[in-house]
Amino acid sequence: MMKKIVLPKKEDFIPHLAYDAVIFGFNGTELKIVVLEYQKTNHFALPGGFVRHNQNLDEAVYQGVQNRTGISDIKLEQCHTFGHQNRRDKKVLKDICEVHDHQINDDNWLLDRFISVCYYALINFEDVTLEPDELSDSVGWYSLDDLPELILDHKEMVSKALEVLQKNIDEKLVGMNLLPEKFTMKDLQNVYESILQKKLVRTAFQRKILAKDILVRHEKKYTGKAHKAPYLYSFKPA
Fold it and tell me: What is the pTM of this model?
């Protein structure tokens, strides 16, 4: 039997303000994002929520993302604020509420127009145990080229977060948790190619990265013939 939820109370939250998060993850070959599916509605969405009166915006976002990923030290950054005047969809919220035996009127605060601050993060798949929230019955990793239809302007949020990441990839990767502590140059190139959505020339990429002086070289990674073993690298401390 589905547990009946308690709807958020208007007096507990800052009116008309929400957040959403584009959480990128990398599995060694492909960039994916976290998507929630709301119970029995066929509605898909990015992880998001509201901000309480006694919370900072960043605090609300970090808590919401931690609840879905289990990561407490995730590095999140704002990428854009979405505030189009038509940014609302009463049917989506009504569908979600009705599944949980809540009938809401058209003047309910949850159906108002919300301005959403969008954040993004990059994390290592291996660090994550995804957990659906009380409104969702599933949460998972979805490929960027195989996303379900997302509610509201969430697809636009994904595009904007990827655009911001692409523009700042050199600076962002050093401080993000997308790779294990030690990785090969090929691992790093795979990340760049996934984010930039294009293939890179190996020799040119390696020269560019080494010239930035952001890596520490370690022992070789022996998985086959010794003369073909690649070196392992890590990012220099910030």
Answer: 0.86
